[in-house]
Write a structure and sequence with these properties.
The complex is a heterodimer of chains A (62) and B (194). Chain A is 48% helix and 0% strand. Chain A is mostly helical and 62 residues long. Chain A is rod-shaped. Chain B has 194 residues and is mostly helical. Helix content of chain B is 77%, strand content 0%. In chain B, α2 packs antiparallel against α3. About 10% of the residues of chain B have low confidence. The chains are: A mainly alpha (62), B mainly alpha (194).
Chain lengths: 62, 194
């Protein structure tokens, strides 16, 4: 993190942008895993949505 | 464009109302799911699905969209920006994700609300997972907005340098202050005020 101390200048020092903090990296990994799980569950039919086609066959319209 | 303080207050009040309302509506939805799962009578199951459909379409979906829109307004109308701070970025991504999943899942809820009781009972298994995971995501977003963990993105860093180099005493200089102390009293988007 290349932020300067409070009380002096608020401009980050250095010519390169600061690295992402650890929490952001961990959060990014978790979000990507979440997206992948949701995508896999959706496309393989293991999500709650997967009940729909099966259930639709049993619908008895009045 | 930075909003003037009175407008910012109003937008913040609206954003808090919609965001907290969204969480509350999901909790009410979860109560119906649990009642339907534990109840033995077909009447309870039928009533739960109908109520879940109504709460979903007329409370949760509107609140989620309103929360997303007011969050965008808050971020774009304040020095926080939309892509400048990691906590804002993650809040945006998770809010869009939760809203998209919700809109898709509501089709399933409407389907089960219209089918016979025996079939509807099988749909309850997924409801607990959906509503529970959704509530967890919303609580994570809320925590992000309350604690506002530090961290500025490369884009935010670049914009900050450009603006401070060009106009050190403008309103944009607040952006630098935000990056140093992300727990300041500026109004945060995508969640409630800390």
């Amino acid at each position: 993190m290349s932020q300067t101390e409070a009380g002096s200048s608020n401009v980050p020092s250095g010519e390169s942008p600061p690295n992402a903090p650890l929490w952001a990296k961990a959060f990014g990994v978790i979000v990507v895993i979440l997206f992948l799980l949701a995508g896999v569950a959706h496309f393989t039919g293991h999500s709650p949505m997967g009940h729909m086609p099966h259930a639709r066959q049993q619908v008895h319209q009045p | 464009m930075i909003m003037p303080p009175p407008l910012r207050k109003f937008a913040l009040a609206a954003h808090i109302t919609f965001s907290v309302g969204w969480i509350g509506a999901v909790i009410a939805y979860l109560a119906l799911v649990v009642a339907a799962m534990t109840g033995q009578s077909d009447e309870t199951l039928r009533a739960a699905w109908v109520a879940m459909e109504l709460i979903g379409w007329y409370a949760i979906v509107p609140l989620s969209l309103a929360s997303l829109v007011t969050g965008l307004v808050m971020s774009l109308g304040t020095p926080w920006g939309l892509f400048r701070h990691y906590w804002v970025l993650f809040s945006l991504v998770l809010t869009v994700f939760a809203t998209a999943v919700l809109l898709q899942h509501m089709q399933t809820v409407s389907f089960f609300a219209a089918v016979p009781d025996g079939t509807a009972r099988s749909g309850q298994r997924g409801e607990l997972l959906h509503a529970g995971a959704g509530l967890l995501v919303l609580l994570v977003i809320q925590m992000l907005n309350v604690y506002k963990p530090r961290g500025i993105t490369p884009y935010g860093w670049r914009k900050q340098r450009e603006r401070l180099a060009g106009a050190p005493c403008t309103d944009d200089s607040m952006d630098a202050k935000v990056s140093v102390d992300s727990r300041s009293n500026l109004t945060p988007p995508f969640g409630e005020q800390g």
